[in-house]
Amino acid sequence: ILTVHNRALSRYSGAYPVIPFFSRAHNLRALEEVLTIGLNTGVKLQISHFIFVGRKSWPTVHKALQMVEKARDKGLRVMMDIYPHFCGNSYLSVFLPEWYMADLGSNLTDPRANKKMKFELRLAARLLGFKMSDIQIMQANYPAGEAYNGRNLEEIGRSENLDPMDVMINIIRESRGRALQLTHGYSGDAKHEQVIEKMMAHDLCLFETDTILKKSGFANPASYGAFPRILGHFVREKKTLGLTDAIWRMSGKTARWLGLRDRGEVRAGSFADLVLFDPQTIADTTLPSDTARRPRGIHLTPR
After folding, report:
1. Measured by CB atoms within 10 angstroms of the end CB, which terminus of the chain is less buried, N or C?
2. This prediction's pTM
3. Beta strands, E only, 96-236
């Protein structure tokens, strides 16, 4: 099985040289690339993660799903996975252009390099539909920056009387590139859940968490709330998919797809990976300001 993080996850990406004002969206070009590899080689393909980064990228979900379905109809063995929150974690330096990263130490203190970089990032943010408030510090990873954990760049900029991009540069420099962040605006937001629901209900969709789980810092809400959010918010409250279907995708369907013969099903000979929960109360209790809250409605897990 080939598990692929596509070359581009947004309408515009530095992975391609042409800004797609009139050309094909970069995330669709990247998707076509991996689907073609799968069709040409016959490998089982797992597209991880199936996300749409930035508000301008959300509308491409319809075409993307059509492309996957068309490849399946041609014989490709393919699945995709998603997480139910609208943010994802990575290093803060993930936003920096390739040329800037090539000499990071020098560029961080070079006024000309920073001016050029900030111009490129502002252009990219406009093309993608991002704001500086969408970038939330998970862990600054240096003592003086720990006060920034959980706060977004816009908030920090206001309190420090700095341009949010200068805040980003300072944190990257002081942490030596080790600062972690949560980017919001992935595949929707609290007022726009259509993209997530469309993917979640698709028969080729499996579920994941995709988190960096640490003892310190500010948690990715998916670490504690991903599956409870699916079972509570999307199954019980929104009826996006049925309870049995959701549990099957979290367990047996995933195990079978990955070739794990003794996992994911309640039967003799299988590992007893059991979780006892109440379908009427299970819920993700995380908040943007408190992302490490434990879920409600889970009564017993394996020890």
Report:
1. C
2. 0.92
3. 135-139, 180-184, 205-207
